[in-house]
Amino acid sequence: RNVLKTPLKQAATSHSVLTEIQPDCQPLTPPPKPKEILPADPWTPTSNLKMLISAASPEIRSREQRRELSNTTSEVLQAKYCLQEHLSGDEYEKSQPSRKEKSLGLLCHKFLARYPDYPSTAENNYICLDEVAEELNVERRRIYDIVNVLESLHMVSRLAKNRYAWHGRHNLAKTLQALKKVGEENKYTQQIQMIKKREYEHEFDFDGERNEEMARSFGSNEHSEMSFVELPGMEFRAASVNSRKDKSLRVMSQKFVMLFLVSTPQIVSLEVAAKILIGEDQLEDLDKSKFKTKIRRLYDIANVLSSLQLIKKVHVTEERGRKPAFKWTGPEVLPNIQDTKLETTSTICPPTISESIPSKEQCSKNLFPSQGKQNFTRHPSLIKLVKSIENDRRKIQSAPTSPVKISATDTDQNLSAFPSKMAQLPVIAKHQLEGQSKKAKEMKMELSSSALECHLSSPEVVPKPEPPRTAAPSQQPALTQPLGVCPPSHSPVSPVILPHTHSGVSYAIYLHPSQAHTVTTYSPSFMLQPLPCADVTGIKSINSNILNKITTEEGDNQIATADPTESLPANERPTVKSETSSQRCLKRSQALQENNLIKRYRSDEESVDTSLTFFPSGYLIPLTQCTHGNKAGFSNKEKAGICSLQHATYSSPIAGVIPVTASELKAVNIPAFQITPLNIMLSPTSVAAAPVLSNSCLNSSNTSSAQNPSSSVLSFTLQHVGLIPAGVQVPANPVLRHMPVSSQPENVSHSTENKNLQEKVSKNILQLLDHDGSPSVPREPQEPQTVTENFFRTPGGPNTVSSLSASSHGTDRISEGALYIPQRKLEVSED
DNA sequence: TGATCCCGCCAACGT
DNA sequence: ACGTTGGCGGGATCA
Predict the structure, then answer these.
(1) Which of A10, A355, A525, A683 supports an S-S bond with A559, CB 3.0-4.6 Å?
(2) Which residue intervals define the domain E2F/DP family winged-helix DNA-binding in the entry (predicted)?
(3) Is residue A151 a part of any domain in this protein?
(4) Is the CB of A249 under 7 A from strand C?
(5) How many domains is chain A partitioned into structurally?
(6) Is residue A431 part of a domain?
(7) H helices of A235-332, where?
(8) How distant is C1' of B15 from CA of A189, in Å?
(9) pLDDT digits (tens, 9 = 90+) for A491-527
């Protein structure tokens, strides 16, 4: 509305640049904030183009960003200006914000860049929509698009009016798991088959039979459209949102994701997706317009998912021609096992609410009407309850209306603000690492270095003993604070912190070496290969036809990077450690601080979600350790370091991370098709059966790669428990390691599973420990945890937990028992 | 052209 | 009544 986009953009650009880049400079955001039309990117026009072109290449972007960030604000600004002004004419044209520059995907990237993948604690990470919109120079409407899909993944949750909480990827695994399950329940696989079949046979003609088939396939859920899938912990939050008929985006996004998770070659064409999504709502009437609209939405969603690097655009070539499709590049999702979920669940849920929360299973079931049940998310009563809770929470928090953003005053805001700017560096680094991490070691190196720099630079920030965030609305410097460098000593404030605490970090390190191999091994390039996918599903031939060629648009440029040779696990490993030691301190200290902050928060606030720490892995860990969990600031460094060694280390630096890594790698690199079958076979059952489990080492045996995680996990756990000193790592059985069990890609899958198992086990252990309620443990006894545990029990196989708890008493034995038992649970619990 | 998908109207909701 | 959310689809861009 303001003006013509084109003409204005220049100004906008420059302006935006200012905004984004210079945190300090911005004394105040001018209240009137004229939103400039164009979203100016911090990047140079040139870079923009490049970026745009290689839509996905996060590296570049990150690099750019990094660079810019590193640069003095002034410099950057100047540069921008120069560019802008000089470019006045033709040159500028090119740089002009083309449509692409306004793309949702790009916007989403920017958005994501502001927040850490694994925020230390939810507290800091508040998102003020207005703020974000302003800073990114976009209309709020667009932010909604992003947030909505993020919400569908539980990466954010709505807190209040203009407010969202950023969870990052902590819940991602669980969410995906849940989604997968639901998808399976809905028989999405079959639906997909049907549609494909139909397509092949002919275009959409309405064969009565076809339709019937379709109907049948849909049959179970029929008109049912599942409502928003919630995670146990997340529910309430969602509740607030739930009010409105969450129709599309949110739900649609989930469904879309489900399709990926369910389908064997994890590739979904827009067409199919659209049809299925439509189909659910109303069988048939492929209204053209409707279809079109659906596809539009799917693009929106896909863009965001792409930014999250969960999917990637590809083309499926058939007889007819090539159709746009997307390939899942996100983490592998384990075969759904309820057990897992249960465990997971505990982790997720915010303590407060947890009690009211039905078991996670129930939730999922209720949520998903897959079986033709109703589809309401939760009982109204619950909702009310939730709402009330939320309200309280909100009260506590600020209830600012949208326009608020201006003042840095607000603690929350500060917090939120902080991440965006200060945190960016790390974030960026993270991104790079995560995405196709391998790209260049160089990059990693750079990142790491940059990260270091960041820390160094940041020192200004003094870790003052912060008053509870509420109390201290330090207005000005607020931005900086969050990063606050940690005093070398453990956090002064929180007594809670354990000395070992840092151990978490070390764990991560330990793990890497072994994993490095694994990581190294995989090469992303595979994607390129046109693989005829074998359909696991019933319908055979058809599929093969359908998915003849799969071409990656981008061609995974980065892939080349991944040379197995490059990564030298052995060499690097030591390096890492060494570096770690020095850095570690910092990190730790930081972490500690963060903890403190968090704790304070909690105390201040209601302690709501904060208290729980979530690890990607799903480990339930005492706050102390939680510290590590946040990759946010410093962790990145670690990552960077690690990454250099191994290609991708995504998740948290901690032990929990490790397993994830393996899986993720797998997911990314290996063509899904191949992997899938194996996984299935291996899945929980087999595991359970295996006696191996009792032994931590044994687990690894199955998978070559797997071992590491297991051992690491074990050590991690033990350490936490206090059974073993922090530095010590439980040795993985070397012999087993070497076991050449599977040399092929399958390994990966195995590893994944193992990983999962291990995770579970570890979780169990942790839980057990918790259960014994060893107050002795330094960790804080936080309510949340407690709640969690309870929660845990309830939902989960009732037996399982109890059994565990019973056994849990002798530390050592317990651990063993835990290992063992849990497995069983898995089996049993699984329906 | 078809594939993408930006833009923003305007209705559903919340307060 | 007004602000927040966000469905929806025209039509501009891109390839």
Answers:
(1) A525
(2) 99-168, 244-330
(3) yes
(4) yes
(5) 1
(6) no
(7) 235-242, 248-262, 270-281, 288-307
(8) 43
(9) 222 212 222 222 222 211 112 222 222 222 222 222 3
